[in-house]
Amino acid sequence: MKSEQLQEFREQLEAMRGEIISDVEQTLMDMTSQHGNIPDPNDRATIESDREFELRLRSREHKLLNKIESAIGRIDKGTYGICADCEEPIGMKRLQARPVASYCIDCKLEQERREKNLGK
What we know:
mainly alpha; 4 helices
């Protein structure tokens, strides 16, 4: 992969990381600023439901953040764009669609097929 392409992916990944960190900081500010006694049970339930939803989102984003960090690490090591399983190049279209991808489409489909069969 050309160094210009790697730099573009690095910038995209760093932008994704920055957006997630910003969202987390905003959530923390929102949650710490919401205080006080809310007497109406319906309002309290709505607030708790919203908080739970935000926390689930942040949990998913935390997992994505780990994948972003891993992808940036692969760029640094020179292994970005190489499948972690078969060691063949990951297609450019796949990387453009999912820059954190660590498997080529064939290996990822096989992995998902095995996981699905284990779940039965």
